[in-house]
Amino acid sequence: MYRISKSKNAITKLEERLFSELGFKEREHLQEWIAKNPDVLDEELLIIQKEFQGFNDTKERLDLLALDKDGGLVIIENKLDDTGRDVVWQALKYTSYCSTLTNIQIIKIYQDYLDKYEGGGNAKENILEFLDRENEDDLILNNEDQKIVLIANNYRKEVTATVLWLLEHDIQIKCFKATPYSFGDELFLKIEQIIPLPET
Description:
It is a single chain. The protein has five helices and nine strands. The chain has helices at residues 26-36, 87-98, 103-117, 123-130, 157-168, and strands spanning 2-5, 10-13, 15-16, 46-52, 62-67, 73-78, 147-152, 172-183, 186-195. Strand 1 and strand 2 (10-13) form a beta hairpin. It is globular, with a radius of gyration of 18 Å.
């Protein structure tokens, strides 16, 4: 990535960095940036919960839970400089846990999010507005297969191989590469979809 100087009619290469060397953390930073700007994931998403741990008989927590424009659930799992070996297994577990969530449960999850992080609001009305629906008569959330989104700076081969296999078997999963850059004191973030390639 390059910085353009119009006055000098020149470009300067930005320095590729690691989140860890810049002092950024997974939950405090990357997760918050995505929660506030879900459009970086190349589709309209409504974040309905973060650090969701409402699973029976387990204390596990998924990073971000969202709705897409069809009312489907999107499970978003963030890592920083490396995915680790188990990120796909982790995401699949969370997706299976969320697969049975009903309209009432999803609205409550989002209402809890609004009350805790957004100072309140009406979850049902927000969802209807996001989905361009006038009333809840035909509102069906989580009706189709769920989507999985993985975000990290580096993907291990065992992770990408598994993701490609899941795609071949019609599991909706995407991988985004998040790369920080610096130029002097300025910091930049590039987030790009790498699997599947957007043009495919």
